[in-house]
Amino acid sequence: MKVPLQIAVLLLCTVVLGQEGPSAAILDLSKEPHHKLLFENSQVRAFRLELQPGEATLPHRHEHPYAYLSLQPLTIANEVRGRPPVVVELEAGEVHTSKGRFTLAERNKSPELADLIVIEASRADAGDFTGPMGRFRFHDVVFGELFQFPAMRTYSIVLAAGGRTEKHEEQYDRLLVAVSDLKLREDVDEQPPSEILMKAGEMKWFHAE
Predict the structure, then answer these.
(1) How far apart, in whole angstroms, are the C-alpha atoms of residue 191 and residue 193?
(2) What is the pLDDT of residue 175?
(3) 13 contact partners, CB below 8 Å, separation of at least 6
(4) How many structural domains comprise the chain?
(5) Mean pLDDT of residues grouped by 10 in the chain (209 residues)?
(6) Which long-range contacts (CB under 8 A, 24 or more apart) does 25-30 make?
(7) What's the domain range around 94?
């Protein structure tokens, strides 16, 4: 059975880039030297992208839907061959998305180091989701739906001190990405409570129940 991916991220926004035809000379994302692999499984792969001021990646191809977010305010230019650069202003924690299937290079237009997380679905035909996002009750939480593709979807959760979700069943595997340092407690049936400590930019994979 094809299982779509659900990604949990904190604080976001969306934009879609254009498409262009494939080129045999273009690198796969995993071969682009500025992208450092952080996590990979059969459903998703995630990279850390760091660029010095004025530095650019080599042209590389995103074959599948993907999302990227910056860990600090940033100006980045997405350079697609034969088109004017698309300059994007990112706030800390802001997420942009694309359906992929195009080639580009990214250039840091900021005076500071660019530090981004790039998350790409491993396939684009994983099937559709059968229910809405956020099928659970919560308290002292700001929940936001961000985007949905057939292969993956993203939502944001901002918890106040003491904020919580009520007990619920998860239908899909999830990738949690921390936009800020966080401390969570997870309560699972027939298991002792566990504590989740994460720094900004760290991620954790959760399997569906």
Answers:
(1) 6
(2) 92
(3) 94, 95, 96, 146
(4) 2
(5) 42 32 68 96 94 96 91 93 92 89 94 95 77 84 86 87 87 89 87 90 87
(6) 26/59, 26/60, 26/61, 26/103, 27/58, 27/59, 27/60, 27/61, 28/60, 28/61, 28/63, 29/60, 29/61, 29/62, 29/118, 29/120
(7) 12-121
